[in-house]
Amino acid sequence: xxxxxxxxxxxxxxxxxxxxxxxxxxxxxxxxxxxxxxxxxxxxxxxxxxxxxxxxxxxxxxxxxxxxxxxxxxxxxxxxxxxxxxxxxxxxxxxxxxxx
Length: 100
What we know:
By secondary structure, the protein is mainly alpha-helical. The protein has a single domain, classed as Helix Hairpins. 82% of the residues lie in helices and 0% in strands. The protein has four helices and no strands. The longest helix is centred in the last third of the chain and has 31 residues. The protein starts with a helix and ends in a 5-residue tail after the last helix.
């Protein structure tokens, strides 16, 4: 039997994996993936608690998080393409150097 604790542990594990990816941040694309993993971990937690209490509020929050994540990906990938066309790399270390 899968309980609420199982879902929350899965959510915490996914969130930690995403957090490690954000902290390591060597590549801009991997930074976007890590952010998506963290948002999906929050979605799992919200949906699980919502199901456990029989309330739709958590599922509505998860729906809005999915909408925000989709817009974040659209804007982020657009900026990523522009950065790659300009510099030829998506390495974050190259972004920290200021060029006039």
